[in-house]
Amino acid sequence: MNSNRSVKSYIFIRLPPIPRKAEARDNADGKREILESTMAYAQPHVIADEDEALEASSRDLAPLRDATSRARRISSAELREIESLRAINAHLLRELAAMKAREVETQKLAERDGLTGLYNRRRMLELLEAAISDAVLQDLHVGLLFIDLNGFKSINDKYGHAAGDKILTTVATRISARVRAGDICCRYGGDEFVVVLPGVPDPFPVSRVADAIRERVSLPYWIGNDQQQLTASIGESMYPYHGENAALLVHRADEAMYRLKSRIVRPSPAPARAQPRLTRRRNDGSTRKP
Asked: Which of 74, 260, 271, 279 lies in the 20 to 30 Å Cα band around 122?
């Protein structure tokens, strides 16, 4: 007996069970049903049914299309109406802007001097009263300058009112250039001006502003090729030292101004030099009548 015997190995594979005849028949029937249901979409009667459905759907959508068309026509009309309303609105806005401009101009005429653009007397007194009320709350002072021009009348009489108006406008500009932004400048009347200095701590700033205005007003003025010169008499008053209301402060400053104006020494013409008196000596042998 041979000892070198070969050994064989085997591999076993599990195969699916062979279907029975009934199962195979069921699978075949199922495949046939799927095929018939798929082919049904290609049948003429099926396609005809789908066309009828689409036509019915189109008939159902016809009112919607008509409504959409009407909506488009309505939208065009509405757009025209919107454009018309926009034009009306723009016109109303222009009218409102013009009305506001007229209101501002009317208020300006009610508050401002027509020539110089400074506050008029009525508005200045209102602002002065308000400044006094604020000074009471803040424990401060209110200064007031009453300004009168010296030499204006002669210029106005010589060169006419147009030249006088030009001088007044220049004076107003020069005064406004020497005060603070919150100070109140007023043309009181004629060639008189008032400056209100709210919220000052002591009299020193008031006097300093008066000196600056006096210096500025005394600068030369030109009327054509003619140079003219003016000076300013400025009276000062201060709340609460000289009065506790607007009218009294203006009155006290006006009095101070006239006191200064009365001290102005106007140059008078030089007197004619006296001729030497001829007298005879007593010892010349002539006789002298008694």
From this structure: 260
